[in-house]
Amino acid sequence: MTSAPFDFAPLLPAGLPAPAARWTGLTKYSFVGGNNDPEQVPVDGLIDAASAVLRREGKALATYGLAHGPQGYRPLREFLSAKLKRDAAIDCTADDILMVSGSLQALDLVNATLLARGDTVIIERDSYQGSLNRLNRLGVNMVGIPLDQDGMRMDALAAALADLDRRGITPKYIYTIPTVQNPTGTIMLQARRAELLRLSEAYGVPIFEDDCYADLIWDGKRPPAIYAMSSNGSVIHIGSFSKSIAPALRVGFIVAPWEMLSRMLALKTDAGSGALEQMVLAEYCVPHFTTHVPKLTRGLRAKLDTLMEALNEQFGTSAEFEAPKGGIFLWVKLPDNVDTLKLYPAALAAGVAINPGPEWSTDKSHAGSRLRLCFASPSHQQIREGVAVLADVCRREFGVPERIANVERRART
Amino acid sequence: MTSAPFDFAPLLPAGLPAPAARWTGLTKYSFVGGNNDPEQVPVDGLIDAASAVLRREGKALATYGLAHGPQGYRPLREFLSAKLKRDAAIDCTADDILMVSGSLQALDLVNATLLARGDTVIIERDSYQGSLNRLNRLGVNMVGIPLDQDGMRMDALAAALADLDRRGITPKYIYTIPTVQNPTGTIMLQARRAELLRLSEAYGVPIFEDDCYADLIWDGKRPPAIYAMSSNGSVIHIGSFSKSIAPALRVGFIVAPWEMLSRMLALKTDAGSGALEQMVLAEYCVPHFTTHVPKLTRGLRAKLDTLMEALNEQFGTSAEFEAPKGGIFLWVKLPDNVDTLKLYPAALAAGVAINPGPEWSTDKSHAGSRLRLCFASPSHQQIREGVAVLADVCRREFGVPERIANVERRART
């Protein structure tokens, strides 16, 4: 470059998000991101799958979507159809499934199909940051519904729907992560799922069911999906292979009535999601999924135990939490005087990355002293060390936990 | 389902595209889509690459983006940095490259970063349908610049820029496919590239350089990219592995100043593009790209010859075209009375898929009797048979080519 650098700034439209910062690598003790356990990636199985499927069908890579059409690699959709029937009681065929580039693309497609600026949606009060951020970006109003240990509270949902109805507002959807809720780790009771469907029908509001953690339940017993219990097709169901196999593979899926799938397909102008990842997943999952997942969840459960033990050791009664029934994260309440938005940069400076609660909630004050800790990716040793560093930082910044907590040991599982 | 089906229609926002139709499979003689030659997919090489890279780095799939950050798998960006230097004289590092899910995601990210409804862009009069469709969807005004055998005409561009300037309009970018232009197959002369940069600087309009076919030049001699010739960083350059390796792998890339990359990263909320495809590509391409591509282009060149020979045989002087210097498509002019938007459904009914010209042009009347024929995917025999069927349909519908054409043979290369 010899001239003055070209200035793009005058050309940028209004409303762009702030530019990204340069990537500076992962934090030493990382309790953030939906990353999985590197030791649990089924590397040998994926190698065998890649070899077999490429040998048999590799030439098809010359054609967009492997000539299986825009809904994705058909054997993977057929695997999912059988799996969803077996695990979640969902009765659907490969034609009802759209493969997408991770459940994040599913969120984008569902939102693009249903939402306009100024719309209202109902969402669990504590929810996935990526969903909250998307809705904020779209200028959509969120009504947060509190959860308890059995998932979204139906009394609160009924009250919210009645209130919106009185104000003449029809929400565009009720978004829920019913099975291993993010970040609370709760599983919605089956009776509540039935009540949710009743309310959905009564008010004419569809349900957006995000089941992307549902494979990771400790006892392996997944309740029927809300999609499966619907009698009128009012549910859009999404899922992912990120949690059950590997997140860097960007493979998720949408199950929905054709009325909605056909709208989403019209907006999915990417000429198909990555075919090699879909091929390798199908080839691996058909024979191995049902043995891989229980092995994975045993390992995750052991890491959760280590995390809870470390929190009890380091934080004592200052850290409150309910042991989740599955998943990869723990939702922790610290004393009220701890502001996790301030704890976050202090911890990061000490090499510990956490998710501050307010970023995972529609209610910033409720979540102000809460944080989310992901436990799948760090090793047992990193979990123990990271929690110790976090406790030191928290003590320095907020005076809790008190020193005495170090010698307390409470088994809370 | 026992209740009346839920009706989503009242919830849909205004302005959605029409719903997609059900996929019904590929046409018998398909001359559409950027598909490649199935016999040229380097299956054995991809199998070896997948095994080697998974064996070495498979565990990293447990972390989003393989812990290489949001710009993509670093070895692939390093391969690209070296390749772009060697082939297109582009001086950039891995930090200047953003891996994306095919060049279609690149189009979306560049557009989202620069365009708002009502904006104006400059584009080659005949251009890629996917780019035209996106701009239409975004409500952006397009000013089409005619091309000749040496690419976009700079006299016409200068006149258009001066005219817009007089009207107080600053276009957001000048979009060009300079190297194997889609659909004309032309390569922009180096002197024109220099003139384009001069005009860009004079009017303060950045250049959006789409080089996704640039690897497929018969003589292997690619001119310097416009990005490489820029002295002020006003160029956004995009490319893809879809044409050089396989389109079903959704892997493309963007090279741009950090001012723009950081804006695009903020809009790329998909947690990274597919990692396995990036890993396998890097592992395969580092040792094999430079031997694979000449072999591929020799095969493509042979198919082009078959296509041109078949057109000469079947259409005689009714089909006019210039032999492209590379690529996978031929831009054909039929007699003025042929309306390719009407030829399209008639041909499809006979099992032949073509791209009608008006879908590939800002000037529907100029392109009304033109069509695009892709030749990489069909076999030599399918090309010959498909062109014969197309000629029969065209004769039936429009009276041309006349019968006598069948016995004419003209070598036009």
How would you characterize the overall build of this protein?
The structure is a homodimer of 413-residue chains. Chain A is built from eleven helices and 14 strands. Chain A is of the alpha/beta class. The first copy, chain A, has two domains: 26-41 and 294-407, Aspartate Aminotransferase, domain 1, CATH 3.90.1150; 43-288, 3-Layer(aba) Sandwich (Aspartate Aminotransferase, domain 2). In chain A, the strands form four sheets. The first copy, chain A, has a seven-stranded mixed β-sheet with strand order 2-10-9-8-7-3-4, with helices on both faces. A three-stranded antiparallel β-sheet of chain A has the order 11-14-13. The first copy, chain A, has a two-stranded parallel sheet with strand order 1-12. Residues 405-413 of chain A have low confidence and may be disordered. Chains A and B meet through helix 1, helix 3, helix 4, helix 8 and helix 9 of A and helix 1, helix 3, helix 4, helix 8 and helix 9 of B.
